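Renewal narrative, Specific Aim 1. Our central claim is that a sequence can be written position by position from structural information alone. The example that follows is taken directly from our test logs and has not been curated for this report. It begins with the structure tokens describing the chain, in the order in which they were read.
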């Protein structure tokens, strides 16, 4: 049974890892686009696009999405590969394709089988209404590759062909995007455009103007009587002037953005320095930094843990308080064998657990409110039949979560009343934070109004806001206490360098958990005391157990570290219009 259980778990785990690895390993690129644009005598345009895919992994489909922009209708949609036509059939079988239509685009999706190879797919279609036809001149203004497409393009070529031979001087073109990365050459029936290393964020938009005489007069009609070569030239000149003006405006706004960022960042830093010096400068205490394993005082472990861990309360403080109550004879902790679980997904751990019993001792006057709260809570859980410590503090239980939230408030209130923290420093922290938020809003406004470079100030402001916490300082009394206990904490970390008396071992153990020391540090406390188990009378080792004080320490530090208590918590487009680019295809694969 155990062997079959192991095999099942192993196969399940291995399958999951393999599937996950396979999913992550799939990758593809579209390094080359070859586009053939044929202007037909009837005024339609046939676009044939050869898309080279390089697959790394297993792929079964690809798509080509064409926005409904700049044409009135689309027909004769075809997909092929190496001269072999795909069938327009909505079956998702290899060798088929389908066309999906939405209010905004046509999506051509085809299916195949490919693995770790290079394939070239050809998509072709005929567009109606894509050409603006004027009395003497016509234009195709087209977006041949959309910005934001799935992959960048290493090599791009566009062959623009007219129905008949035209003199070079009668074919005109303007590359809108990318203006400096596309080269053009002419031939007897049109133009060829080439480009390389075109980013996926960059569109390819080209305007081409040619004589209307290339069309069959009987098969076309004039769509824009105001269109002419002079109009197109003037429109392009206006566009260039607009681009130059926008570039100058962006540069001007960037200059303002930089100035604003410098001013805000400078004010932010000065603001923090002012409040830190006024409210957060640390009190100077003449106290030696020598490490010492002499316990500095009688303060409760959780309260000192709050001080040393910068006013943070964790599950380790609950564990330390529970152990301290056991040390003071309110509870007895017993080592026990783990409960057996024969379910398929049961843990195979053989580590022993710890049960707790009520020692029936009446609370004395030295117990604080939060210690009494923990004492009564554990007693109640024991009376309900919860003896296993890990189950007593099961966070998924709503009652435990509610109690823990209340207990943290009680401990925090107690610690704050000890006079360890300067109350006035909170004022400085809040003032700094509030002013930094004003700077933050100003920086964010600068991003949208001026230039994104103003966001650099937001980074400085964010750091200065977080540093508000550093303004909170300890009182002279709190500073002296902090340094004394900090020396003690450092000594616990280096316990292997000291000789530790057995009668102090239990308290060292409790404080080390309250301070959040690692398992290794806690184990070092016990390694030099092989007979230390007898010194911790409030933990009863199971007869015949091979547990050592070091392993017990590990179990309890695990209990604290792993969250004894956790605070986590067929429709057509509008047709072409002069001066507006249509198209903008993109596509992917999977």
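The sequence written for that structure reads:
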């Amino acid at each position: 049974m155990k062997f079959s259980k192991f095999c099942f778990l192993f196969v399940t785990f291995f399958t999951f890892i393999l599937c996950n690895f396979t999913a992550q390993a799939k990758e593809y690129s579209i390094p080359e686009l070859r586009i053939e644009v044929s202007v037909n005598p009837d005024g339609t345009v046939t676009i044939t696009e050869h898309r080279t895919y390089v697959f790394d992994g297993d792929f079964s489909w690809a798509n080509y999405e064409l926005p409904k922009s700049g044409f009135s209708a689309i027909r004769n949609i075809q997909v092929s590969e190496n001269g072999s036509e795909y069938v327009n059939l909505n079956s998702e079988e290899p060798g088929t394709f389908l066309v999906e239509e939405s209010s905004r685009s046509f999506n051509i999706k085809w299916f195949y089988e490919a693995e770790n190879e290079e394939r070239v797919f050809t998509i072709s279609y005929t567009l109606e209404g894509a050409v603006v036809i004027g009395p003497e001149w016509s234009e195709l203004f087209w977006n041949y590759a959309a910005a934001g497409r799935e992959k960048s393009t290493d090599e791009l070529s566009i062959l623009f062909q007219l129905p008949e031979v035209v003199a070079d001087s009668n074919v005109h073109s303007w590359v809108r995007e990318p203006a400096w990365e596309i080269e053009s050459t002419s031939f007897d029936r049109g133009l060829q455009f080439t480009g390389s290393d075109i980013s996926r964020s960059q569109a390819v938009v080209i305007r081409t103007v040619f004589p209307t005489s290339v069309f069959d007069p009987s098969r076309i009609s004039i769509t824009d009587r105001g269109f002419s070569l002079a109009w197109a030239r003037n429109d392009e000149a206006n566009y260039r002037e607009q681009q130059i003006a926008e570039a100058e405006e962006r540069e001007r706004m960037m200059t303002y953005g930089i100035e604003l960022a410098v001013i805000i960042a400078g004010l932010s830093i000065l603001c923090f320095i002012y409040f830190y010096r006024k409210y957060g400068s640390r009190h100077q205490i003449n106290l030696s930094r020598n490490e010492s394993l002499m316990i500095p005082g009688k303060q409760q472990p959780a309260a000192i843990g709050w001080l040393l861990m910068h006013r943070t309360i964790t599950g380790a403080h609950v564990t330390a308080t529970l152990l301290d109550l056991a040390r003071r004879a309110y509870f007895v902790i017993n080592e026990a064998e783990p409960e057996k679980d024969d379910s398929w997904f049961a843990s195979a751990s053989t580590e022993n657990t710890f049960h707790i019993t009520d020692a029936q001792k009446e609370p004395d006057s030295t117990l604080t409110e939060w210690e009494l709260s923990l004492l009564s809570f554990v007693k109640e859980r024991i009376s309900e039949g919860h003896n296993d410590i890990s189950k007593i503090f099961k966070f998924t239980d709503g009652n435990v979560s509610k109690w823990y939230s209340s207990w943290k408030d009680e401990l925090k209130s107690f610690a704050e009343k000890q006079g360890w923290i300067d109350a006035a420093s909170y004022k400085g922290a809040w003032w700094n934070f509030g002013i930094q938020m004003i700077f933050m809003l100003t920086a964010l406004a600068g991003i949208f109004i001026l230039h994104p470079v103003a966001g650099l100030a937001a980074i400085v402001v964010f750091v200065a806001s977080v540093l508000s916490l550093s303004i909170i300082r300890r009182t002279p009394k709190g500073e002296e206490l902090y340094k004394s206990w900090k020396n003690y904490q450092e000594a616990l970390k280096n316990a292997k360098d000291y000789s530790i008396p057995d009668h102090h071992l239990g308290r060292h153990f409790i404080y080390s958990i309250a301070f959040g020391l690692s398992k290794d540090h806690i184990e070092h406390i016990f390694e030099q005391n092989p007979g230390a188990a007898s010194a911790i009378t409030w933990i009863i080792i199971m007869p015949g157990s091979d547990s050592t004080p070091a392993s017990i320490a590990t179990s309890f530090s695990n209990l604290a570290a792993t969250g004894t208590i956790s605070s986590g918590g067929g429709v057509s487009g509008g047709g072409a219009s002069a001066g507006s680019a249509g198209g903008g295809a993109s596509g992917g694969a999977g």
